[in-house]
Specification:
Elements lengths: L6 H4 L7 E4 L3 H12 L4 E4 L3 H20 L5 H8 L2 E4 L10 E4 L5 H12 L7 E4 L6 H5 L8 E6 L8 E6 L5 H13 L3 E6 L6 H17 L4 H11 L5 H8 L1 H14 L15 H7 L16
Parallel strand pairs: 1-2, 1-4, 2-3, 4-5, 5-6, 7-8
Antiparallel strand pairs: 6-7
Helix pairs in contact: 2-3, 3-4, 11-12
The structure holds nicotinamide-adenine-dinucleotide.
Length: 298
Amino acid sequence: VKKKGSRYERQARPIEQAAVLGAGIMGGGIAYQSASKGTPILMKDIKDDAIELGLKEARKLFAKQVERKKLTTGQMAEKLTNIRPTLSYGDFDHVDLVVEAVVENPKVKDAVLTEVEGQVGEETILTSNTSTISITRLAENLKRPENFCGMHFFNPVHRMPLVEVIRGEKTSDAAVAATVAYARAMGKTPIVVNDCPGFLVNRVLFPYFGGFSQLVAQGADFQRIDKVMERFGWPMGPAYLLDVVGMDTAVHAGEVMAEGFPERMAGMGGDGDRSAIQVMVDHDRLGQKNAKGFYAYE
Ligand code: NAD
C-alpha cells in the first residue's frame, strides 16, 4: 500500500478532467465518485438509455447525501454538473485521464481503447477497469502503452475503498503516479499491483465463485451457502455477491480466469461444463442489474 507522499504521488500530474467509457454499473459509479469529490468527468456510452441509467444512479446517490444533510440541494446540483454525459468523443482532447469501463470482453476493450487513444492528447493517461484481463495484453495494440495501466474499482464504487492500480509490462511510473493520485483524490485507497489475470483480489475471489458454482451444480442450496458464509464472517455470501457483480460480467471474467489458471477455476465452466453462473445467464437472471438473479429485487 502506497501511503500519501509516496514516490508515486510526488511524481503525479494532477487530473483536472477525467472521462469514463461505459455508463453501466461501474461507469456510473465511477462518474458519481469523481463528481462527488470534485473532479469533472465526461461519461461516454454508446446507448442513450445506458447514459440515462448512469445519471439516474448518480442522482439517487447525491439525493441520499442531501437526505443525510451531508449536501444541500444547491451543492448537489453543482456536483451533478461535474458529470457530462456524452455519446461522442467531442472534448476528449482535453481529458487528463480516461477510465475504460465497457463490457468485460477483450475484443470490445481492444476496439474501444484503440479508438479512444486516437481521440486524446499524447499525455493523456488511459486506464482500464477490467476485472481480469491482463493489462500487458490490453496494451498490445496501443501506440503509447507507457501511458496505460489498470484502475480497478470495486462494486459499489461509492462504498468500496480499494482501487487496484495495475502496472503492465510497459506502464511508466508517471502513469502509475497519476492514477494513484486520481484514486486518492476520489477518496479511495489505491494499491499498486503487478499484472496477471485477475490481479490480486479477483485471483482470490474467482476460485471462490468457482467453488460456489460447483456446490450449486451438485445440488446445494444457494441461500444456505450465503447464510453459512455470513456466519463465517463475510459481509455477504457468494450468491448475493454475484447478484451485485452481474452474472454476465462474472461469466466473462470467469472465462479469462479459466484461461489464465485452468487448474484453479473448476466450477466456472473452463473445463467445458456449463457453470451454474452460466445457467443463470441462459435464464436471463443477470442479478441486480435486471432485478432478478439468485434473489429477486424490486
Ligand atoms: P455493465 O454491463 O453494467 O456496463 C457496461 C456498459 O458499457 C454498458 O452501458 C454498455 O452500453 C457500455 N458499452 C459497451 N460498449 C461500449 C463502447 N464501445 N463505448 C462506450 N460504452 C460501451 O458492466 P459493468 O459491470 O459496469 O462492468 C464494466 C467493466 O468493469 C467490466 O470490465 C467489468 O469486468 C469491470 N468491473 C465490474 C465489476 C462489477 O462488480 N460489475 C467490478 C469491477 C470491475
